[in-house]
Design goal:
- Its EC number is 2.7.7.65.
- This is Diguanylate cyclase.
- GO terms for molecular function: diguanylate cyclase activity.
- It comes from Acetobacterium wieringae.
- Keywords: Nucleotidyltransferase, Transferase.
- This protein is α+β, with helices and mostly antiparallel strands.
- It folds into four domains: 42 residues; 94 residues, Beta-Lactamase, CATH 3.30.450.20; 147 residues, Reverse transcriptase/Diguanylate cyclase domain (Alpha-Beta Plaits, 2-Layer Sandwich); 173 residues, Hypothetical protein af1432.
- The chain is 54% helix and 13% strand.
- The chain has 19 helices and ten strands.
- The strands form two sheets. It has a five-stranded antiparallel sheet, sandwiched between helices. It has a five-stranded mixed sheet with strand order 6-8-9-7-10, with helices on both faces.
- A hairpin with a 5-residue loop joins strand 4 and strand 5.
- The longest helix has 37 residues.
- It is elongated.
- The protein starts with 14 loop residues before the first helix and ends with a helix.
């Protein structure tokens, strides 16, 4: 056996012998391996420092005796947050409790908190782990971007994108949770915007969307504090109210009607919002939410039927006021047309029912222009082809409006056809000759004459003689030639002395 391994000759392992000092040094045998190990340790240490420097999270270390110090004090974005955290006694007290728990259980622990700094709310996740040397490592990660993104994703799933209140999916999920539970004082309220389709068809979907948003805001102000307000359809809203007696619901509905009245009385209210509603109240016991919803829906539908006729007529009156507000229809315009049309009708010996329709048509034939943008209606120059396509839609819009009114329903087809021309080049149907209703042929002449002899956004008024000559030149193309002759006689006999 080699002497160096004899127990009697065994060298004492000391710091000096390991690093190569003294007579009993191990230097001859082990120096190269130690140098390699030391280099490896330095390399690992360098990597660790570099790794810590690249970690964006706040790193703290605790010795278990309540002393917490930063492990990466060179933070840039996190340094301000670190100072705020270290200065917050409540957060530090909570953190020390978590550290104590980890030291007792030696199990990784999570902790979450939020804190306001730099004028915004930030969300943090804390992870606490203990090492084999009983040092506690604390990692604090700023989760604000992730939390905000998760909230946005939840909003996309649970909220209506137009009104930013809960959507139908959320509403139905809430009903499902409540179904077959023993609940007291549960109310399901359903509300529906009256005439929204009518608004979309006449004034356009952009105004329809504004009506939906306004209605949701009114409903929210009155019911958001009581329960869950949701948009459950295009024009329908649902409210779930828990732990409130029925008289509270009635009071909230009265408040809602009061808000609607104030909103509708505003000077710029183009469309007066009306809501039909019905609710079902469950006092106590096991609840069947499907039955409760159906009962509320039936009550809402009955309420809608009771006010449907008056709502439609009020809508038409509102649109007429809106058309007057556009400064297109004036009292003078309609009265002048009515006078001239009556004289022509009398000359034609038309029956009274036809005369009545002509008089209504002179007043309401352009009601569809309430759905045409002002940028087109009041454009001082010629319309582009695309703008002209939009302008032509006013006939169909007017027909839809008239069909919603008991007073105008009989002339809805005349409103649709009032832009037809004798030679078939008019719109929207391209009717020609006597296929064009006589009421529309009369209107075509009197409307053109009044338009030419009065100021328009795109030109000044023409003289009566110029306007008459223009109408005569268009006899057989735009106008009924026989009716043009009668028009000239009426002008000569009744109106020329006044001009």
């Amino acid at each position: 056996m080699d002497e160096s391994w004899n127990h009697k000759n065994k060298k004492e392992i000391t710091r000096e012998t390991i690093i190569g000092l003294g007579e009993n040094s191990f230097k001859k045998n082990y120096y190269s391996e130690l140098q390699t190990k030391l280099l490896d340790l330095e390399r690992i240490n360098s990597r660790t420092r570099a790794l810590i420097a690249t970690i964006p999270d706040i790193l703290l270390i605790s010795n278990g005796e309540g002393q917490i110090t930063p492990l990466n004090p060179s933070l840039n974005t996190g340094s301000y947050a670190l100072l705020e955290i270290m200065r917050n006694p409540i957060l530090m007290a909570d953190l020390k409790q978590v550290i104590d728990l980890v030291m007792r259980t030696r199990v990784l622990s999570d902790y979450y908190f939020s804190m306001t700094f730099k004028d915004s709310l930030h969300y943090f996740e804390v992870r606490v782990q203990i090492s084999s040397f009983d040092e506690v490592l604390i990692m604090i990660r700023d989760m604000t971007e992730r939390v905000i993104m998760e909230k946005k994703l939840r909003d996309l799933v649970d909220k209506d994108t137009l009104t930013h209140i809960a959507n139908r999916r959320f509403f139905e999920a809430e009903l499902e949770q409540l179904n077959n539970r023993d609940i007291k004082n549960l109310t399901i309220l359903l509300l529906d915007i009256d005439g929204l389709k009518f608004v979309n068809d006449t004034l356009g979907h952009l105004l329809g969307d504004q009506v939906i948003v306004s209605a949701s805001q009114v409903i929210g102000r009155c019911f958001q504090a009581l329960g869950i307000v949701s948009r459950i359809g295009g024009d329908e809203f649902g409210v779930i109210v828990k732990n409130q007696p029925s008289d509270i619901i009635e009071s909230a509905l009265e408040k809602m009607n009061s808000h609607l009245k104030c909103l509708n009385e505003l000077p710029d209210a183009t469309f007066k919002i009306s809501l039909s509603y019905g609710y079902s109240y469950h006092p106590c016991g096991l609840v069947n939410t499907n039955f409760l919803f159906q009962e509320a829906d039936n009550n809402m539908y009955q309420n809608k039927l009771l006010k449907e006729s008056s709502t439609r007529n009020n809508l038409v009156k509102t649109l007429m006021k809106a058309l007057e507000a556009k400064d297109y229809v004036t009292e003078g315009h309609t009265s002048r047309m009515d006078t001239l049309a009556t004289l022509i009708g009398q000359a034609l010996r038309l029956p009274q029912n036809v005369m009545d329709r002509i008089q209504l048509l002179t007043k309401f034939h352009d009601i569809g222009k309430v759905g045409i943008p002002d940028s087109i209606l009041k454009k001082p120059s010629a319309l582009t082809p695309d703008e002209w396509k939009v302008m032509k839609t006013h006939c169909a819009i007017g027909e839809r409006i008239a069909n919603e009114s008991s007073e105008l329903k009989d002339i809805s087809h005349l409103i649709l056809k009032h832009q037809e021309k004798w030679d078939g080049t008019g719109y929207p149907l391209g009717l020609a000759g006597e296929d064009i209703p006589i009421e529309c042929r009369v209107l075509s002449i009197v409307d053109s004459y009044d338009a030419m002899t009065n100021d328009r956004p795109y030109r000044g008024a023409l003289s009566p003689e110029t306007a008459i000559n223009e109408i005569v030149s268009c006899a057989g193309s735009q106008f009924d030639p026989g009716m043009v002759k009668i028009f000239c006689k009426v002008i000569e006999q009744h109106l020329r002395p006044q001009q």
